[in-house]
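I hope you will forgive my troubling you with a question about protein structure. The record follows directly beneath this note:
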Amino acid sequence: MEGLKNKKIRVAIFASGAGSNAEKIMATFKNHAYIEVCLVICNKPQAGVLEIAQKNYVPVLLINKVDFFSDKSCLNELKQQEISWIILAGFLWKIPTALTQAFAGKMVNIHPALLPKYGGKGMYGHHVHEAVILNKEKESGITIHYVDEIYDHGSIILQKKCSVSDTDNADSLANKIHKLEHEWYAKTIEEIILKAKA
C-alpha cells in the first residue's frame, strides 16, 4: 500500500507547436517529488516540441487525425501508461469526447485571452492577438481552464491580465501573453494536481 501511495502522478502533455509551455512544464516537474511528465502526444511530425521531449527523455506518441477521432488507441495508450492528468500546451485539435469523459476534471488547457472572450474554433495563437488588437481592447491575458466537450469552455481555474497599449501589435501582445503563460501555467498545474492528490 505504501508503495502505491508514494507512486508519482503521471502526466501527459498534448502539444502541436514549438513547445515553450511544454518545456517550462517539463522543467518544473523534472525532479518533482510527486509529479512526472511521462508522455508527449503530438499531431505534427515537424513540431519543435518533439525536440524538447527528446532533450528531456520524455517518450513521444505521434498521432494522426483519423485514428485520434475514430478509435480509442490514444485513450488505450494513456491507460497503458497509467496517465492521470492531461495538460494541453498549444494542442490545436478538439479533444474527442471519449478522452474528455475519461479525464473529466483532470484535463487542463491554457488559452491566450480572457475567456469567454476570443475563444472557440479557430481562436488560437496569433488569431487571438490580432482579434484583440483589432477590437482595441485595453487588456488581454491568459485563462487556465478545465477541458470539456466544447472549445475553450470548461470551468476556469485562473485568469491573469496584461494591459494592451495603443502601440501594441499582435507580436508584442504575444510576447506579453507568453510571459504570463510561462509564469503561471506550470505553477497552477502543480497546485491543482497536488490539491487533488491531498
Remarks:
- The first helix runs from residue 2 to 5.
- Strands lie at 9-15, 35-42, 60-62, 85-88, 107-111, 139-146, 156-163.
- The chain has one domain: 2-112+143-161+186-197.
